[in-house]
Amino acid sequence: MTPAEFQALTNATPAQMGDLERFITRLTEANAVMNLIGPDTLPDVWNRHIWDSAQLLEYAPGAQTWADLGAGAGFPGIVLAIMLKTQPKSHVWLIDSLGKRCRFLQEVVDGLSLRATVLNGRAEDNAVTVEVVTARAVAPMEKLLGYAQPYLQRGATGLFLKGEKAEAEVAEARKVWQFKSNLSVSRSDPRGRIVSVRGISRVKTW
Predict the structure, then answer these.
(1) Which of 16, 37, 129, 161 has the fewest CB atoms within 10 Å distance of its CB?
(2) 68-78 pLDDT per residue, tens
């Protein structure tokens, strides 16, 4: 995917495209010393990472507040913050347990003047009230739902980017959690799935 193809799919403004280009530049620099993403994915960064993240906006039209758990390299959180920059009431919380990743995220947030807050700590200990909670490549669904439980119980919808084993992960998670879910085919990779989750409670064992 080229930048022009991404712009055509998303109607991104020239300012948003500029922010995304600057983010990619900073990510490439940081990745040389921090291994934020697989180096072999950088040549396809617009599809593998940028479009993969931005497509989530289509599943929550109008949502202004998001929490990205295990925000790591900024996918999907930084991309969402850039794409929501034109919305004055938008805000994205970027939550990660590793200090050096949080410092990288803070540099990007400050450099691009994003409406975003970086929180260094465990996802389940930083439960803010948001409309959508998301995560990408963080943990299997069973464990991920444990991280997301406080957000979901406060009314958030979960939108989780998963791979080709998503169906099996959801089935395994149902042994521990009760929840409503829907799986959609990822537009960036037909092998991937976007798992939408609403409501959550632990399966009773008695």
Answers:
(1) 129
(2) 999 999 999 99
> Can you read off the two tokens belonging to residue 191?
């092998």
Counting every residue, how long is the chain? 206
Q: What angle do the packed helices 14-34 and 99-112 form, to 10 degrees?
A: 150
* 3 state SS of 54: helix
Q: Six-digit token pair at 190?
A: 């037909």
Give me the average pLDDT of each 10-residue run along the chain (206 residues): 96 97 96 87 93 97 96 96 95 96 97 97 90 94 96 96 96 96 96 96 79
The full DSSP string for 75-114 is TTHHHHHHHTTT-TT-EEEEEES-HHHHHHHHHHHHHHT-
Query: In terms of Cα–Cα distance, which of 129, 17, 111, 18 is closest to 63?
Result: 129
Type of residue numbered 18: G
Determine the Cα–Cα distance for residues 99 and 121; give it in Å rounded to an integer: 8
Rama region for 179: left / alpha / beta (φ>0; ψ in -120 to 50; rest): beta
Token representation of residue 178: 């009760």
